[in-house]
Amino acid sequence: xxxxxxxxxxxxxxxxxxxxxxxxxxxxxxxxxxxxxxxxxxxxxxxxxxxxxxxxxxxxxxxxxxxxxxxxxxxxxxxxxxxxxxxxxxxxxxxxxxxxxxxxxxxxxxxxxxxxxxxxxxxxxxxxxxxxxxxxxxxxxxxxxxxxxxxxxxxxxxxxxxxxxxxxxxxxxxxx
Length: 176
What we know:
Keywords: Membrane, Transmembrane, Transmembrane helix
CATH topology of the domain at 67-175: Monooxygenase
Protein name: Vacuolar membrane PQ loop repeat protein
Membrane topology: Multi-pass membrane protein
Strand content: under 5%
Pfam families: PQ-loop
InterPro entries: LAAT-1, PQ-loop_rpt
C-alpha cells in the first residue's frame, strides 16, 4: 500500500519530466508532420543564414603536410569511415529483428525515424552535391553507404510500422 502511495505522489513529477499528458496525442500524424516541417524550416533558415554569411566563400587551406603523410591519413580516414559505416548499419538490425519476431513496433517513435530519414537523406545528398568527381565519390563511399544504407533500414522499419499497426489496432479491438 505504501509503494502505491509513493508512486501516485510521483505522477505529477513524472508528467513534468517526461512531458506526458493524461490524454494521448489525439492526432499523432499531425504532430509528426508539424515537427518535421519545423525541422525543415529551421534547416532551410540555417542554410540561408550561413549562405548569406559567406560560409562557402572561404579558400581551401593547404596544411602543407608531405604527400606520404596525406596518403596515410587518407587511408586511415577511409578505414575508419568503413568501420563507422558498418557500425551505423548494424545498429538498426537488432530492432528490425525484434519488430519482426514480436510482430510489433510498440515503444518506437515514428517521429524519430522520420527525423533520422531526413538527416541521413540530407547528409547523403550534401555529399553527392558537393563534388561528382570519381576520386571524391570513392573517398566518400563509406559515408554514402552509411547514410543511404540507414535510409534503407529505416524504410524497412516504416514498412513494419505499417504492417504491425493494423495488428495492434485489431488486438486492441478484441480486448474491448
